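Usage example:
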Amino acid sequence: MLRFIIRRLLVTIPMILVVITLTWGLIRLAPGNFYSGEKKIPKAVEKNIREKYGLNKPWYVQYGRTMGHIVRLDFGDSLKYQGQSVNTIIARSLPVSATVGILAYLLALIVGITVGSIAALKQNSKWDYASMALAMLGISIPNFVLGPLLVLLFSLALYWLPPSRWSGFPSRSVVLPVLTLSAIYMAYIARLTRAGMLEVLRSDYIRTARAKGLRERDVVIRHALRGGIMPVVSFTGPALAFLLTGTVVVERIFALPGLGNYFIQASLNRDEPLILGIVAFIAMTLLIMNLLVDIAYAFLDPRIRY
Amino acid sequence: MEDERPLIHTDPEFAVAETDVHVIEGSGTVIGTSLWKDAWRRLLKNKLAVFGLIVVITITVVSLIGPLIIKAATGYTYDFIPNNVVLIKSMPPLTGPEGSFSWAHPMGTDNSGRDLLARVLLGGRISLMVGIISTMVSLIIGISYGAVAGYLGGRIDNLMMRLVDVLYSLPYIILVIVLLAMFRSKTPVGQLVLLFIALGSVSWLTMARIVRGQVLSLKNQEFVLAARATGVSTTRIIFRHLVPNTLGPVIVYATLTIPSVMLTEAFLSFLGFGVQPPLASWGSLAADGIQNIGIFPWQLIFPGVTMALTLFSLNFLGDGLRDALDPQMRKA
Amino acid sequence: MSKSKGKLLEVRDLCTYFETEDGTVKAVDGISFALERGETLGIVGESGSGKSVSNLSVIRLIPTPPGEIVSGEIIFKGQDILLLTEDEVRKIRGRRIAMIFQDPMTSLNPFMKISSQLMEITQLHLGYDKSRAYNHAIKMLETVGIPDAAERVDSYPHEFSGGMRQRVMIAMALSCEPELLIADEPTTALDVTIQAQILELIKKLKQDTGTSVILITHDLGVVAGMTDHVVVMYAGKVFEQAPTRELFAAPGNPYTKGLLRSVPDPTDEQGKLYQIPGLPPDVAHLGPGCPFAPRCARVEEICRKEFPPFVQLNANHFSLCHFAGDVFDESRKESDSTIETEQ
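Running the assembly step on the lines above writes:
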């Protein structure tokens, strides 16, 4: 197991570098740059700026310099937000995104697994049809439609929850963003759990468990659940990647000062250091989370041994 | 005559056995159906899938010919801004400029007085087109890649699949966003092409995996052996023999990819990276609509609900197809 | 309460049907059999004969959306199991009637340790605490012949071979010293050499604990060596039942004769393998006559039109056939002549 982890980590680092390189390449290949806005800058000023940022050197020198800094985790200062280092910005905005993301996924797991299991147990009943129809709805409503609708309902009509303000975790401002983000995952997880549980409940070892005289509750929780949630565990890997993009949309809708929002702004502003910094961070997070998911998989299924 | 060696033993002990399997009276006749007819029959029994199919077809048809009808009837198009300044404002559905009832704008107007119905229909055209074409792009790439890898097997297969694994764990969407942000095309059409390629390149990975899996299990079957024995070239074997037999899961996955791609395009447009004005997709309409959510909520609701309905139907259809083609997953 | 005359288990007119898309499948259609204490009863039949379903019905393990035990009585030690509540049946399952299944690969939970799977039975039914249950589990593994039981008890199922897994299943089944063990094709999925070992194990455990056994199989060889009585099933009905030796020596039913003929005999000079012609019937669409008529060697008009009677040939021998008596007489003559030629 340890060797597996080390091997994975060794592969991860080059991959992150590849991602950063690709991003850097895209930014540089594109026409224009940070300074090609509507305002025309005097030639002399432009020359100064180019010298300051080393933009007059050949591309491989620039690449080398940038990467050299990056491997030391120095992403420089943001071009747009003068005086603020990229690392500071990331450190400040990360907790916001992390809170929303983690809460959303936890909520999705709890609700999704419960609903999916019950649907599987009461297959073809009204509960089953209703919850699966609801799940289908959850998959089909885009989060940028759901979010504003929730705001419409709970903020503007009912005054229960604030529309777009961020007061950190234990406040009510968390509810709507988390719900909006969580909805689609609740739906997916419910469906996956239902499918997984149905498959497991048909298997021979469940028949054995029942033949032993176990209560149905024990059959489900002790025996069926372990195998039934496997599809959900596999799903968590790719789900995290989508969670990222979902967070971006949710942060835009609710104007949350999170990583996603900064990323979009940086892309629109062509703020190269910030873009690279966030991309590197995201890539690293994703790869590590995928590794954790694989490890979790091995823990849950004793047949898998790395 | 003495050197003639009989090809078949004449010893009665080695005679070919008589088979005893014959049709037993009363056991009924078996009507053979092809896989597709069978699947189609099962699909039709699934009411939700049929509902999905009908809705999808309806929306597609309406999106295609609706704008023509509207233009003929009222002269409105998706980018028609009225000359009269008084009319350049958001109007609620079925209302005229003074607040009185009017058939002119069944879905109301947006900030610039453009007819929302026409724009929603345009959104439909664009969103569906992006969904379908991008899915086809990913199909072509994915099927070719997966089939080749599966058929050639061995080291090449290993290498190709490792590449897929590596690509799979990259944060694709991030790169796509950067790509679209950097390379804003000058023309809306150019932007669309960029979208086709970008979105198509996101979903081919899973398709490749599916196709490879299917090909792996098929390639050892006898019809492949027969084809090779008669000298059919490798390319032909892959594309004329193996690929048609992988169509089942491919169709299912494609039907489920279309809504997923449409969702991706929608949120890209929502963020401003996708479809550019004056064109519109449901995502960009939603972005416009959010601006006025408090006062004119319909500007978001109409495109949003239409999109949700379409995705809903596509998902049901995809589910139904999967159930129809794979009987083991059936409920009872 | 009907008297069962000291019989451990008596099944009367059991009917278990399944509602499917193709119609009502009468998997078990009016079967009756009985088991005395300390006996081994063999239930023989081809796939689809209803042998598994009838035994799953005994402990009410039929999945209820498609299946249902429609009628009949299952008298276990004087109590009709079909009249009990779900809770009461659960107390019987695993505790007084235990069942082991065909495929040990899939019948054990791959995600749980063997120890947990063994312990939960005694913890549930006998109220053992953790350490007592654990030690009992080790003891059971030793009883079924697993070497190094104390070390291996914490392993997972995939770490055992097929034969070992079946032994674990047997250990699980006998943990609470049940009065009846139902073994549903316990050796079909195993290698031939392992088969013999498992059967010997069952025999030995039966002698040691006095458990009665129902052995379900399609293999007549297994039946010959292990059972006291045999029930032959076909298309959801009992076609013949008799003490084992008598069934083999003088079968009273053409189906049974066909089965016996199908067993390859290495000493047979002829060299041709016999098989009963045709295939088992579609139990959802049976005709009015004898279900075996389409395949029977001595079929006559009446067989196709009328359902055969359940004929009592002697004290313990019954056969479902219009010509039961004739078939039985022929068989006796054949076996007498065989005995003569052997002498």
